[in-house]
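Researcher: I'd like a structural prediction for the single chain below. Treat it as a standalone chain; there are no partners to consider.
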Amino acid sequence: MSQTVRRAIDILEYVARQPRTQTEVGEHLGVHRSTALRILESLTDGGLARRLPDGRYAVGHRLAGLAHLALEQFGIKDIAGEHLRGLGLRCGHTVHLAALEGHQIVYVDKVDPVDGVRLYSQIGRPVSLHTAGVAKAILAYLPRERADELLAGCDFAPHTGATLTGPVAYRKALGTTRARGWAVDDGEYEDYVNCVAVPVRDSGGDVVAAVSVTSLKAKADLTALETHVLPDLTATAETISKELGWRPSSP
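Model: Treating it as a single chain, here is the predicted structure.
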């Protein structure tokens, strides 16, 4: 990638967070103001950036329009598919992708192990909100009101002795998930199955989906999943998030 193109991309990401002055852009790039201005003017001429009345630069309307037109090319299942299959081959367990759709969290993709037992979950079916790891990984990062809205119809029915059967215990689990960055299902729907799950973010940083690795406890218990699978799962979820447009916050 040429230096000019790299700088242009860096500028667009920088002004997308908030409008910036020519000086701020130059300092961000580590270049002279005149160099920053030259690239800003080219981006402005192309409609990818725009100069505000106060002299600062922001994202251009053409860029927003192109992004809107391209949205249909970025279905999360299409973006995630290759990465989910790779994760499944490496870990040898079942991999799920679940997404927030309206008032439900739904399985949108699944990778079964080549030589293992196939689990009950089905693509297109809603997840069990109070037991599924993917549900916790999503709900933990939603605004409280939105999470409450989704959980309003949850009956917290017990499935095993480990099921969280009330909102107080469930809220505590969501707090733990948010603090450490991943969720678990420790035999909460079927006592012989467990999983770890990690959130997926969109271009605005909002959690819109989650990826999980699920295994029979006899094959890999929760400790084994957290020790041997979680790092790869986390990296996979971050890769999918980046391809959806997410960028980690700068230190």
